[in-house]
Amino acid sequence: xxxxxxxxxxxxxxxxxxxxxxxxxxxxxxxxxxxxxxxxxxxxxxxxxxxxxxxxxxxxxxxxxxxxxxxxxxxxxxxxxxxxxxxxxxxxxx
Length: 94
Fold this sequence. Notes:
Layout: E1 5-8, E2 11-14, H1 52-67, H2 75-86
Antiparallel strand pairs: 1-2
């Protein structure tokens, strides 16, 4: 159950009269600042697609390829691929 209210002079004033019975334990969820870098509360973290062992194996393969002289892709191309994978439109340059 969610009840809304406003903090005034150190006291929470519920939007609805008698919304919270006296003595009720509550949880306070403070809104994050727009630019604080926190993960939004209403956005779940991305799902894990690999086990730890699979991730480590993948990193080892990548390091071996780098040591063997394999080159990656330019950053602009990598970002273009990521945008396409996520369904975003191509970045406009101008």
